[in-house]
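Posting this for the archive.
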Amino acid sequence: MRILRYLVLGALLLAFLTVALANRGPVGITLLPEDLAMLLGWQARAEVPVFVVLGFGAVMGIVIGFVWEWLREHKHRKVARVQTRAVTKLERELAAMKDQTSLPQDDVLALLQKPRK
């Protein structure tokens, strides 16, 4: 399984490097639309290779997907947390009940069965 994982990661790396080498041309990135930039009197602009934009888009898509899924599963984690607390409480109660029922009913037998140190 480990070898298969490394092969898949290697293939993905090779594909990314191929796309990066094919898209080295610069592209202009602006922070604000032209009208809004003129209104504010400020504009941020950068020239970056196309593969940087593609890579940034892929990373942001993965991050947004993880956050979205984490928020969506919140209710399931909450139910699991509540049920874990309930199970822990019931296990403590069961252990206490076992301790109470394991004691002999006769006082003389209780003294005889008491472990000696």
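The beta strands are 26-30, 45-49. The chain has a mean pLDDT of 87.
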